[in-house]
Amino acid sequence: MKHHVLAWLGLLTVTLVPSAHAVEILRWERLPLAVPLVVGQERIVFIDRNVRVGVPASVGERLRVQSAGGAVYLRASEPIEPTRLQLQDTDSGALILLDIAAQPAKDGEPVLEPVRIVEDSSAPQRYGQQSSDGEAVARAKVQEDTQPSQPSRRETPVPVVLTRFAAQNLYAPLRTVEPLPGVMRVNLRRDMDLDTLLPTLPVRAEALAAWRLEDQWVTAVRLTHTGGGWIDLDPRALQGDFLTATFQHPTLGPRGTPEDTTVLYLVTRGRGLPQSLLPAIHRFDPAALLPQVAPGHDLKESGDAQ
């Protein structure tokens, strides 16, 4: 009887094994990852982060692409020649490249398993990234065990890293945006009142986007010249509490020309741009600065007496 039970258990195990779904692990080491497809079959790519998918127009009608909850769903309706897709992290801007190609299904061919993409911890450092070599990690581990944790020192100052990241997101092609670990997109009111930002210049200011890294914010502001002639942009004319200020272009051309618009990058510490503008950081009652006059006393007479 015991042998019959073991035989049944063995048969049950063999029966259950084919129903398990394997997952192919691909390691991202800044080399394009090959993800073959079969026409009519959907293949799932797990990346465990929210991404935007860049698809060439040449395959847009033959490839259905959906992205949700850290997974990308790919389904080809026709054969597709080798094509490169771009996956961009919506938070950090980091890119992952996929090389796909779709072939017709063959008789007896198994269904392609899902793919999971994992990061390579030994990848080289990128611009503004914190040190990650083995010695630094070991040293950080010892310090963590012996003293309270402190923010790691960056090779490049945070304002420089944030300004460069914002400029790339607005001006550079998607494939050239440097990944910046830890950066977060910040909600920003597009109707923010910026009339006091550059009160001495004939420009119109409009907030475009904002990002945060550690305790610092960078806000991109579009400046449009509303007058004629050329004007120089001087950061000393800005009104507000800013850590750094950088103009994309040093001058603005006459209104109506391609040179009449540029972008200003403002870095603030501990708070965003709305809390760093002049009215928010320097509220006062103008009446408090006037001379105090006693009731019934004529201010003009007091001045004549002096």
TrEMBL record:
Residues 119-157 are annotated as: Disordered. It holds the Pfam family DUF3438. InterPro entries: Integr_conj_element_PFL4704 (IPR021844). Residues 122-133 have a biased composition (Polar residues). This is TIGR03749 family integrating conjugative element protein. It comes from Pseudomonas veronii. The lineage of its organism: Bacteria, Pseudomonadati, Pseudomonadota, Gammaproteobacteria, Pseudomonadales.
